[in-house]
Structures are given as C-alpha cells and as structure tokens.
Amino acid sequence: MSKSITILAIESSCDETAASVIINGQIHSNFIANQLVHEKYGGVVPELASRAHMENIVPVVDEALKKAFPDVSHADRLSALDAIAFTQAPGLIGSLLVGAQFAKSLALSLQKPLIAVHHMQAHVLANLIDEPRPSFPFLCLTVSGGHTQIVQCNSPSDLVIIGQTIDDAAGEAFDKISKLLGLPYPGGPVLDKLALLGNSKAFEFAKPMVPELNYSFSGLKTSVLYFLQKQEPGFIEANLNDLCASVQYTIVEILLYKLKKAIQQTGIKHVCIAGGVSANSGVRNGIEALGQKLGLKTYLPAFQYCTDNAAMIAITAHYKYINQAFEPLSTSAHARSNW
Q1: Across residues 6-32, what is the average pLDDT?
Q2: Which domains are assigned to the chain?
C-alpha cells in the first residue's frame, strides 16, 4: 500500500450529483450539483434525476479534481488517484447507475482499484470527517428521508443496526406532513423554520410504540391527517407555526425515546447523529439536551455533511482502502441493499 492514499469519491444515489477528493483521511474538495427540476413536481422524479446526473457528473468531478489539485494538469490529477469510490446502494437505480458506471469506467481506464460504498454506512461515518471525532464504540442515530436507524459503531468496518423503522422514515414523515400543511417542496426544512416560531406543546399527536429499539412513523402521519380533517377551514393558516412546532416536537420525542433506551442497553456514552434530517434544529437541540442530561459526549456533523454528499463516501472509502476492500469491475449498483 502506498504511503499516501488519494481517492476520488462519487455520490449519485438520489438527486444530488457530488464528487469529493480525500487525501490521507482529509477532505480536499466536496462539490455538489443540486437538481432544481424536481421542485415543480413536489418530489424527485427518477427519470429526470438520472438524466440530470448524466449532465452534471463530468463537470462536478472536474471541479472536485481542480480544487484538490489546483496547480497540475488534468492528466496529473487523474494519475495522483489511488482509487475510485462510488455509492453502490441504496437509492434510485437510474441515479446510482450513472455514478457507478462513471466510476467503473474511470477505474478501468486508470487501472485503479474500485471501492463500493453503502450510502447509509457513509452517513454514519461522516462523523469521522472533522474534529472532534467520536471514540469507538459509539451510537449513531441516522435519520433521513428513506431511513431511520440506530447504529452501534464498533469500528469503521463494524457497524451494526440495533434499531430501525418498521414502516416510514422520520424524514418521510416530515415531508408528507409538510405537504398536508401546504408547505412547498422540500417541506422538511420549511417546517423546521416555522417550528422555531411556534408553541411545541400547542397540539398533541400520536407517538406510536413498537417493540425493542425500532421505530414507526406511519401512525403519526395518520394522527395529523385525522386531526386536520376535523378542523374548520382556515385552521391550518391560523395555526401554522404551532402545528409545525408540535409535529417537530413529536417526531424528535419519538426519536430520542428509543435512542435513550439504546444508550441504557449498551452503556455507550458517545452519541452521534447522521443523515439529512440531522440538519433539523429540533433533532440537533434534542441530542445536545439529552447529552447534557445523561452525561454523554455528543457529536453533530457539519451541515454540509448531513445531506447527501461525496465527502461521506470518501471517508468511508478511505477506511475501506486501508482494509484493501476493493470490488471487481463486474460489481453493480442496487436500489435496495442490506448491510
């Protein structure tokens, strides 16, 4: 293994095309191209997403390489790479295939190793990008639009899911309830901003209870829907801030209740959050408050590493490279994949 480890990482699991260069465990570039085309549809359109990835991937990779190696030629930038990494799963299959095929083609042309990364594992390991870094073992509450998990992290290569949603994810609950309230897409960040202006105890909604350390959010969505259907016209507009605050409070309470149980069961005192919803102010404040109450060391990733990005793919690939965890060029992307 070379003394220096330089990896180009590509992320294309949904509607962000991203590329990052990591050198010896330090992020040197992290570029993201967002796709605004989906806003008028109120959600990500898979076919449009994959087309946008095909348009964006070359310029995004080029910018990431230029930022990491500003004073050398394009050929020298490519020759400096020790491996190419990409998001293998889970995600939209069309989007994943664009990133996977680009990475495989580049690895083949450069004769460099190929590293496949699981998207959700990468969200967890985003906590290892910046100081302060959690000590192993640590617990990570991973909350995104498609996943809600409690992960016990024993090492960069030993991540164990000890609890997860049995139906909808917390991020999905945020987005669908935002739609019920008439908020624009994407609704989660808008709901978060309005929640800061409201009374979190104004309205009470269901907190579904499921066994062990698992979650459920479908009942909460139904609870909010039935509550709104009983109200008079104009109720949502007159109480929008309080509704947002009450919904956010309920979701955070559900998340933290099971996380607290996981802390008690494992005895682990280092706790992180990850995933797109980890940018939510209620979740971040709730984790910090829980940490102070229970004497925990809590870690909050920078906002740029919460939503989908290539830096998290890069840091995961760095540890995989150390373990020589490479993939053959015959490997393929998968829309769904267990760890």
Answers
A1: 96
A2: 6-124+306-322 (3.30.420.40), 133-300 (3.30.420.40)
